[in-house]
Amino acid sequence: MTGREDGNRQRETQAGQGPAWAEELLEHLRPAGRDVRRVVGWLSGAVRGSVALQDAAGNLMAGTRIPLDEDLVTDITAGRIASAAWESRERHLRLVRVEHPSHTCVLAVSREAPFDRRAADVVTHTAQVIELLLTARESTAAGHRLRRATSDLRLAILQLLMVEDTIAARRVAAGLWPGLLDADTACVYVVESDPAVRDRIAEECLDSTREDALVVRCPAMDGHVIVVSPREAAGEALRSLVGRHPDIFLGGSARQSLARTATAYGQAVSALAVAHFRPDKTAVYAERTHPERLMDPQALRGWTARVLRPLDTLPHHTRAELLATTRLGLEFTAVNAAKVLGVSRNTVRARMERVEALLGTDFADLTVRTVVHLALNTQIGLTDAQFSDTTADSTLRLSDLLSGPAVRNWAQNLLGRLDADARNPRRTLRTWIAAGGNAERAAQALGMHAQTVREHVRSAEPVLERQLLAAGTDLYEVVLAHLAVGDLDLPVLHRHD
Q: Which stretches of sequence are listed as region Disordered (predicted)?
């Protein structure tokens, strides 16, 4: 790179004359112009010569390579001398030491004419500017590494919470954020933005919550930021953040124990879908009547213990790992569950297949997924002591749990909302569920187009106030309603139901 070829011709006549060169050099310290290569190119034009910036090992960092005496370069980078000059008939050479946070560099300038006072000053001051830029770049890089490490640590804590390992999560968090997870309960929020601005929104979430919450860039959804906060003030701070930005949305969970972070996350995602239709772009998961709350608690615990009994022979850690992975795998796709847990999707599938084998069933069946989801959600609220042999010996079956008047009335009222639609979306929805949520198979059974099936299912979502096209708690509640009213056959789990 030389002054005659770098586009600086218009400035060559002024560079080096009076203060003009200093003003030009200072321009390179502005935020938009901080580029070492540009500074070296400018220097080449300012002194009408060749310029090279290289490290102690001889690696060229900017400019064009210039033959240099290795011993002289070593003396400068070792700090024995600060600068050097060399002359011959053909060229004049100046070498100046440039300090760098991690290693010293050499700025070498070669030109045909001797160095006058102004040219020497330009070289000296340019070396100082390069030194500032290199230091700033190193500091910026170190800051990026620190932020990346901190971000990775936050994700690791979230992944521990997702698999119910609250003890390890607290231990990891205590080092950097003492007291962050001391509470027994927390709310989970999901902030949705354009992926291009997510990093900035994540930083604003940290500022808004004053780092009093666990803020994580969602590993599964590029536009999502997950916030786990034990403190009430975080919700208000995040709502204020949404109000300041026109294109972001907020979904929040009900307060849950830390061990139920995965459940709270699912609630927040469900609320986020509702937030898209709200004027204030925010929604909190509605504490509606859930079917399991209408069942006899003792009978539900006994049935749950029996359903999950085949897993009781496993070591405690393995059992907990399989249950946590399956719970997430039923809420989300295997790919997204894997990203949230920090494992491969093959690992998620392998763990779920092992649970399938132990339970003697097939998760391709939506009714099976629903029943296992009910058992897992019940199990998470139980202590090991409640899984006693006496409780597990209950003879009640799923049909008994669903036949109670409270559950049946709930199911009839929920599905009855669809009866007013002349298109009969209730029949479409029932057929779609029986087909495992596959629109093409349901369309063949109904004699309609697959897109029509999807439209019927999609139109049922606002009526039922539940997401159906995305697997999760909302869909499983609707499936459970179909089971309760007898519109679908009860699945069989290892010959107990």
A: 1-20
Residue 315 vs residues 153, 312, 319, 320, 321: alpha-carbon distances, Å:
28, 8, 6, 9, 10
Cα dist. 326→24, 191, 330, 344 in Å?
A: 63, 25, 6, 14
Which tens digit of pLDDT belongs to each residue from 377-411? 888 755 444 444 444 445 678 898 999 899 999 99
Select the highest-mean-pLDDT range: 95-109, 246-260, 288-302: 246-260
d(CA 341, CA 496): 31
Nearest residue to 263 via CA among 203, 323, 348, 209 = 323
Please report, in angstroms and rounded to a whole number, the separation of the first and last CA atoms in the chain: 79
Decide: pTM greater than 0.70: no
Which residues fall within 8 angstroms of residue 419, CB to CB, at 6 or more apart? 426
pLDDT, the chain, mean: 85
Mean pLDDT of 65-74: 86
Q: Hunting for tokens 């789990």 — which residue is that? A: 493
* Rg of the chain taking only CA atoms, in angstroms: 33
Task: Please check the confidence at residue 86 and state whether its pLDDT lies above 80.
Answer: yes
Q: Percentage of residues in the chain with pLDDT exceeding 90? A: 39
Per residue, what are the HEC states of the chain?
Answer: CECCCCCCHHHHCCCCCCCHHHHHHHHCCCHHHCCHHHHHHHHHHHHCCEEEEEECCCCEEEECCCCCCHHHHHHHHCCCCCEEEEECCCCEEEEEEECCCCCCEEEEEEECCCCCHHHHHHHHHHHHHHHHHHHHHHHHHHHHHHHHHHHHHHHHHHHHHHCCCHHHHHHHHHHHCCCCCCCCEEEEEEEECCHHHHHHHHHHHHHHCCCCCEEEECCCCCCEEEEEECCCHHHHHHHHHHHHCCCCEEEECCCEEHHHHHHHHHHHHHHHHHHCCCCCCEEECCCCCCHHHHCCHHHHHHHHHHHCHHHCCCCHHHHHHHHHHHHHHHHCCHHHHHHHHCCCHHHHHHHHHHHHHHHCCCCCCHHHHHHHHHHHHHHCCCCHHHCCHHHHCCCCCHHHHHCCHHHHHHHHHHHHCCCCCCCCHHHHHHHHHHCCCCHHHHHHHHCCCHHHHHHHHHHHHHHHCCCCCCCCHHHHHHHHHHHHHCCCCCCCCCCCC
Provide the pairing of β-strand 282-284 with 224-229. unpaired
Identify any residues that bridge with 50 across adjacent strands, giving them in sequence order. Answer: 2, 110
Burial class (CB in 10 A: 0-12, 13-18, 19+), 313: exposed
Closest alpha carbon to 151 in 101, 198, 96:
198
Confidence of residue 29 (pLDDT cuts 50, 70, 90): low
Q: Which residues pair with 377 in a beta bridge?
A: none
- pLDDT of res. 18: 46
